[in-house]
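ok so for the tutorial part 2 we go from a plain amino acid sequence to predicted structure tokens. step 1 is just haveing the sequence, like this:
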Amino acid sequence: MAKQRFRDVKQGKTIKPNEDKEEIEGLVHSNIRDRLKAFITDSFMLVMPLMYIVFYLVFGGREGFDEHKFVGWLYILVPLIIIQIIFLLKSAQTPGMRAYNIILIDLKSEKKPSWNIIIYRQVLTILSLFTFGWMTLFFRKDHRALHELLSGTALIKTNNPVQS
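step 2 — the prediction. this is what the tokens look like for a chain of 164 residues:
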């Protein structure tokens, strides 16, 4: 933060630091803590039911899943990506993002991204997960991961959870 002038402080024009959020180009980017909370919420609301279905209904138990791990994880990840795409197409938010007032926007239009950008972002998310591209959010002021940089999207804090 820049040093304030005495005259500004005396006249009450103090600048209050905003430690939780980074404001860049007029948009308030979501912080790492809210993103992590949204990820954990989505994990329990979306991934856990899919895992239960795949473990016990498809493979008949943990041992069956253990024998076919690659196929089992495909049975979990593909429906997860489809469900997330449907949520993002509908309201630009997953359930975890809605809980913490985070919305996905296209940085060019500053509105909800189109379907092809959302699909492209979700494919890049999986690639970013396996190549550790998600770690870029720890080194950037706007906390954007590699898949967000490549797709031109950002997760933004908002006061009203649903925008179109």
